[in-house]
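Subject: CDC20/Fizzy WD40 domain-containing protein

B.,
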Amino acid sequence: MNSPLSPLKPRYGDRFIPSRAGNTWHLTYPTSPSSTSSDGGRPTTPYKKARETSENNKDGSVVYSCLLKNEVLGYQYEDNKDISSTEKKSNASRKLFHFDATERSVVVNEPWSPYSLSPISNKSEKLLRSPKKPTRRISKVPFKVLDAPELQDDFYLNLVDWSSQNVLSVGLGTCVYLWSACTSQVTRLCDLAQTEDTVTSVAWNERGSLVAVGTQQGLVQVWDATAGKQVSTLHGHTARVGAIAWNGDLLSSGSRDRFINQKDIRAPPAIPERQLVGHRQEVCGLKWSPDNQYLASGGNDNRLYVWNLHSTAPIQNYTEHLAAVKAIAWSPHHHGLLASGGGTADRCIRFWNTLTGQPMQCIDTGSQVCNLAWSKHSSELVSTHGYSQNQILVWKYPSLQQVAKLTGHSYRVLYLAMSPDGEAIVTGAGDETLRFWNVFSKNRSQKENKSSLNLYNSIR
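Prediction pasted inline below.
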């Protein structure tokens, strides 16, 4: 007869359950004190806190995850710079449940050492002590908004430009207005109402002293901004001039007549303009390369052409875009790198190696690409968009990771210009507003140049 088990005798099963009473996890991995929410006095979960401070908690969770990998899986993270999805320093030959006494020599800084004063390994200590990468914060709100009545909602025009003298030029209807970013003073440069003409494009020269004004009737007027007087007029086009680009004293203009005209403004009026023939529809984008050797042009024929200083025919022809190419930008950091954006039917930003003539990366933005501009201080670029999201996006290159998304315009963001210091941008839209955003930042080494060879930092 089997006697019942004594109540004082413990019952054993077939599983081993370790006792964790002696662990010091609360000392090793301290947690933040729980707060009480308003819904019934229940403590807030880490997920709610992560939503409130997503950026800080994301960094903390990554460090915590790497710390666990060091302690449990034998990873070798020592610095925050080592933390990335592509570079993981792991010990592939290490077995998780394998123990060998010869592998663990007595080291003071290791947790299995009897002389260790730390509950974590030396690698993890270095990881926690390593400096964190500063968090990049881009304000989602413009720091200034200006009214721009009669700013046209036309994809093919370029009505906003920012000079090297920190003066903004804007084409509004029949007039061109200048706004000083230093004094906030507004002056009217010209009015084309007497000739029954309208402004279709504006562009500053590199010195910031002259501004070229393209008109609906096909004229290109050159104005002295300081004196407020017209310097010259170019009559080579037969339709509106929607794109203008300067190269020193050489002025290039693109028109609805499908031609690109070039002329040195110092030349006498009797000398005809040089005409570049290639586009089959309106030319809506023009940009010179940083070394002033090559001109990139985009048109409504979905073509992107590259020209040199001497040829009247394009030396490179890119046909991958499926819509009009207005957004064009040369990289100031990578020689020969050209970025271009397509219209509503394309929605893509494409990158080209003009040294070899080969296409590179391509990313679908989901909306019409209206403008592109590279940062002057880092390998990043900003794009403005139209149908259907009317947004401003900041990208990292070459990863094409989206850094920021800015919204605020209620119409297509058709116009974009960058401040002379390269830190701020201004965007214009058919909602008749100009919005100023702090998007890019200088490196600390670039903010101050204390070289003794710089003659502009001191008075001799």
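The chain is about 10% helix and 35% strand.

T.
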